[in-house]
Recover the amino acids of this structure.
């Protein structure tokens, strides 16, 4: 059984990674040298990585089924579910890449996913910034608009800093996807910073809106619920820090 599968209840075709040689195991190697292509997780492929194969699994295959759709705190427009494998037999033509080459397939896929998925977060940060500026200019307390208070204006300034830094990181990493052999470190840095910037911006937006920020009639409470998931999917923030630390040799 596999849990927390994004779009699992809706997908007709899935890429599944499975251990195909239980006899192969061993520690991963140290971080690759400059220009070398790492496997998933930001390390060079070790013995254990050669035991993994990527398969294309299609809905309707004998033994494969999807279970219940899971209810989530946020991101409710993207269904998440459970997938069940009960002695599933996959034909040889459904091997993606080569037998034992699944770690490389996964590593490449995660590099692209972590690099580009967060581009949408940049747009959300910008929208939250615009919404907060508009609210700060029109909401009045104690005889003046709340944007005149440093406690509010400094939050908005921080949002702008996070927006511009996140945007530049995404652009830089995206530009390296086709020009650099290894972008696992860039992808981890980008995913970590942008997702945590999104959460901070959403929290600040809720705080800035006060009681309205806690109400469903304003979009900021939903943005916060959705933002929290960004530090979990595609590798948690802790996993990104592990990858970065390994690349730095610590």
């Amino acid at each position: 059984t596999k849990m927390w599968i994004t779009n699992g209840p809706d997908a007709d075709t899935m890429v599944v990674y499975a251990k195909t040689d239980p006899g192969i195991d061993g520690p991963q190697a140290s971080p690759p040298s400059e220009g070398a292509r790492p496997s998933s997780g930001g390390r060079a492929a070790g013995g254990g990585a050669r035991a993994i194969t990527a398969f294309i699994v299609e809905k309707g295959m004998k033994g494969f089924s999807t279970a219940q759709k899971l209810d989530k705190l946020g991101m409710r427009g993207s269904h998440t579910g459970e997938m069940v494998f009960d002695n599933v037999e996959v034909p040889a033509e459904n091997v993606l890449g080569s037998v034992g080459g699944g770690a490389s397939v996964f590593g490449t896929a995660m590099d692209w996913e972590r690099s580009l998925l967060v581009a949408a977060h940049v747009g959300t940060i910008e929208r939250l910034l615009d919404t907060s500026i508009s609210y700060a200019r029109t909401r009045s307390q104690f005889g003046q608009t709340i944007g005149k208070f440093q406690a509010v204006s400094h939050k908005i300034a921080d949002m702008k800093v996070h927006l511009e830094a996140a945007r530049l990181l995404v652009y830089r990493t995206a530009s390296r996807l086709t020009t650099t052999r290894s972008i696992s470190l860039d992808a981890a840095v980008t995913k970590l910073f942008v997702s945590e910037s999104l959460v901070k911006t959403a929290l600040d937006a809720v705080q800035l809106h006060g009681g309205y920020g806690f109400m469903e009639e304003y979009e900021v409470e939903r943005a916060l619920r959705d933002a929290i998931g960004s530090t979990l999917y595609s590798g948690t923030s802790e996993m990104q820090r592990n990858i970065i630390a390994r690349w730095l040799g610590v």
